[in-house]
Amino acid sequence: MVDPAGMRYGMHAVLYVSANAAEDLWWCLVMKLETLAVPKGYRFSRRSFVRIASAASAVGLVHITTEVDLAYGQRRIARDIPADAVLINANENPLGPCAEACSAMDNLGAKGGRYEFGLTQELVKTFAEIEGLKPEYVRAYAGSSEPLHYAVLAFTSPEKSLVMGDPAYEAPMRAASYSKARVFKVPLAKNYAHDVKAMVGADPNAGLLYICNPNNPTGTTTTREDIEYALVNKPKGSTLLIDEAYIHFSDAKPVLDLAAADKEVVVLRTFSKIYGMAGLRCGFAIARPDLLARLEPYGWNSMPVTAVVAGTASLKHKGLVLERKKINADIRNDLFSWLAADKYSFVPSESNCFMVDVKRPGKQFIEAMEAKKVYIGRVWPAWPTHVRVTVGTGPEMEVFKKAFKEAMETPALAVQGPPKGAESWRTDRPYASLS
Predict the structure, then answer these.
(1) Residue-wise pLDDT tens digits, 398-411
(2) In CATH, what is the architecture of 71-95+321-427?
């Protein structure tokens, strides 16, 4: 039988849908239609319902991979993190939520005991008005990780592949393992943008093309013209998934208007980055209603009310994005000047992270930095001697400079296997090649 709690909260259990359970779930869906983003003219049939019920049961087996999973999963041995450690490994914003967001959460008080669906509606309405969108084109989620996974599950299959850059954010590839889709990883172009011409030609049966703009981990951008080229030339029936988690840090042109124009595009936004709300979990999927409807079977959770009011307050703070963009850029550019002066090799970034070549196995360098209480980001298999670094505060980056220079001046060790006592869950995962 299908357990709604299992579907909703991702309990790891083997699920199946019997005829009676399907009938019950059918009526449950019918009763909940007012909460689903179902476009006009869309009709549910028993056939479409079986598809939805199967998808809903499958999602109970899916682990939603987030940046924090990847950031801390790289550590082969569990150690307590020192209180004075510098954490620049998970693309978090050290500034945290703005004062207005914190005040909104403080004032929420006892309302935390209610689901308060109206607060989510206000968040969506506020965002839609600011961006010139219709509210039905916006769906709020607890961060952008959920709709990212749901989009992969909805638009890929054993017959419909996922196409993505390399290196790029790994979560879509992990989600594709659940839909049993083939994954085509296309190396970035020479300017570190997504090579859209190679991507659209990677597989004529592609179901989803993923573009993270700016890209995680390189922090580099793909032009609006290239994204439009991908939209026009992509395989027939495929969809573009444009992840704009880091868009506010850069001068890249957003593509929300393409979703508003009913193109085959799903755009992701999050409050985790420039708004400093990674721990609060709040984000959006933006697309035309029929595309959003394809994500619906995979999750119907209510939003955390603290995140919702913090998000609304952040959106209403008109100068916040520009203020934080400048803070990040000033610290980042100072760091790049220092790296260039010492002739270290790095990829110029427009985001809050960048890749630097440490001229040795990246994992070894990560451990050397950790010994100095500086926690940096992970390694991508395509670039084994590069590590990702998140831009922290000014004082944090001064500590990073000192530790980085010391580590770079220390001779590299011979490559060794995992140390004794390494935790099996960190080394025996089915995707162990992903750092």
Answers:
(1) 999 999 999 999 98
(2) Alpha-Beta Complex (3.90)
